[in-house]
Amino acid sequence: MLTAQLLYGLTGCLIVALGLRTVLLHASLLHRVVAINVLGAGVFMILVAIAYRGPGVPPDPIPHALVLTGIVVAVSATALALALARRLTAEQSND
Amino acid sequence: MNTTGLLVFDGLLLISIVSLAWSALASPDARRSVILFMAFGLVLAVAWGRLLAPDVALAEAAIGAGLSGALLLVAVGEQSNRALQDNALRVSERNALRVRATLQWVITILCVALAATLAWALVHALDRATNERLAQIVSENLAASGVSNPVTAILLNFRAYDTLLELAVLLTAVLGILALGTARPDYQRTGPVFDGLARWLVPVLILTAGYLLWVGAHAPGGAFQAGATLAAAAVVLRLAGERSIGLPQAGALRVILAAGVGMFLVVGLTLLLLGRPFLGYPPAWAGSLILLIESAAMLAIAATLVLAFLGGRPPAIAVNEENNRC
Amino acid sequence: MTDALIWLVAMPLAAALATLLLPRHASVVVIITGVVTTLAGGILLFAVGTQGALSYEIGGWTAGLGIALRADGLSALLLLMTALVMLAASIYASAYFSKAVERARFWPLWLLLWTSLNALLLSGDLFNLYVTLELLGLSAVVLASLGGKTAAVAAALRYLLVGLLGSMLFLAGVSLIYAGYGTLDIAALAHLIEPGPVTWTALALMTAGLLLKTALFPLHFWLPPAHASAPAPVSAVLSALVVKVAFYLVLRLWLDVFAAVVTGAAANLLGVLGAGAVLWGSWRALRAERLKLLAAYSTVAQLGYLFLFFPLLQALPSGPARDAAVGGLVILALTHGFAKAGLFMAIGVIQQRCGHDSIRDLDGTAQRLPATTFAIALAGVALIGLPPSGAFLGKWQLLAGSFATGQWLWILVTVAGSLLAAAYIFRVLGHAFGHQAYPQRPVTVAREEWPALVLTAMAMVGLGLAGAPVWRLLEGGL
Known about the structure:
heterotrimer, B: mainly alpha, 3 domains, 75% helix
């Protein structure tokens, strides 16, 4: 196991925990959406750390493909959450 | 770079990543939180580059930091958007305040425990070094895949089914956005400085998008990065106050949105009906089929991200829907 | 024949695009797709029954490099249930939405949901499961928010956030598995899995994510508002299918892939949470003022029964007793799917005809909407678990298993839950039979009422009297 893998992997775990804490605790919706994105970034960090195999060696491409898919899925979900929030505000002001 | 130098660089990078994440999450002001999040995304892109993941770095910069940040920023900018500040998950308010403090401690401890468990498992997993096998199989089959960039080969050939479903996820999100409301009002026409900037930036972005699409076959790049760049061009146009930002009208727009999934299905099912496996490209045609699918996907991704930025149905669609009796 | 596996995913997806591009012909497209998909599901079930588990490698790449689709007895049964429920709900939905604009928005999303259900049930790759879970979550959220007022949109937003959290936890688990075993293929993993920190943590993370999605107590808080505020056909499918496939994944992981690693303590934990779900869900259903809220809490309770099987299956040694228990679990899940979908659709009819779904004000519904009330009664029988419904067979196996392994607690919970279910069902039926005279011409609209009736009848008679083939189909698998 390489030092870089260990460092980046452990940081990923830390970021996952940070994101999770804010999702569970923070009151505002926007912070929760940001926190879910941060949580995702932590998981992606773990994946990319797994893929790294040293300075001169080509990395394992499969986790890279998985992370790319994950990034696109995350932005779709974020966009939907923001659209729902906008609609919710509109409905609440109609009440 | 020597090992110590690299270690120092890694240390600084990781410290900035963690502090940016912490500040973004802890900041009470929504706008500051979003901007710190965008910075977090950009530093993350540097980290991906450091870990020899250029495809992911491009995608993170364009989509993860760039477009996500733009979406969040424009949402925060709407002064009237109360729901963003409200608590979305709170179901009952009764004991909220009393339980608050103990709950905070319990959850913090649980999250620390989760991080520790995750780290412990990860260390054990990394010790096993078993992922050589699959990566080797990928490189063995790379020649038959039609492209030489392994990430593109995985996304558009070996695991193309994942990408097909992912484009379906994008389609679902954009259909939801279209159903939930109408687009935000146009921006005012901007001053000469930004206007001048936009005049050369937009063509450059469009060219870059085309380049990224083409080069994705043998270098970092591909449909997702290209689509995001194209969407960025449209966003710049909109910010400059242009009314028409290149989005087609009602029927054509639906075709473009459906094109990503549609092209995949057309290619896949045609191959199936010709006796080959679903999405089993003949090696001689693989490169061209992949480019065909990626072009359609690029347009669909760009249109989806632009509509997400607009926030809802553009005005022309709203009129057209009333005429659609079925 | 194995081509059917990919057609089951490609057909609804192609139909979704067709309804998007040709909104005027959407209803025809949907019905044709529905019928063809149901037939395909039936053919698949027959094929699995005669040939055993089927697999299809997409792109021709070996599983591991590429993604494989797999179908065995369990997934084929759930697939057919999905097809039948979706077909019935589609017929109902074509009558439910009166405005063309609503329908034009509804059908593409509806078919995308169907695609995700089929894709999830057939997927043989862990990361592919993550993507199907996301597709499922997003389409369910958008459908739940359609045309909705504040309550529906707020509930949908909560559902989205909870769903995203669950998916992220699942993905974290998948990453650990890839790190530790170097493959994402489920069939290959089933042979490679061995106990260790990587496996335990990965299983815990994936299960946690899935428990959020299947709304197991105490993570059920998002379900009642979301299912109660959604449009009726959407509620039907959310309760019957969407949470069910998340449970299917828990089952697949615990009994199939990670079977070597599951401990008694972990299984007992699931059982205890299931018991909590049964008691709390049934109690809240009894106290509900609205029909849809009652049905939503009933879903929470019924899913709890399914989790009660886990400690039993862990304690029973391999053999006929365990196979019977697995069969009971599946029949219970299938029965609930049909019964709950029928119940929600019947409630939807009442809501549209009477303008409300308040239980106290139901006076006289039975006389005015006899077919619908009959459907509610049938669904109620299946939810309580009276013979001849499939649920009776399932609960019988639950009790038999508890006796055999000496785990008395589950017997108490099952009996208490069934009594509470009887109470809340009879409460509804009691209010439905008012004191008015029988009208000359009771209202019956075929498209609205027959789907519910057919589904609940399936739960009662189909699965109850013809349940034996289910056991035979499951023999090879878990």
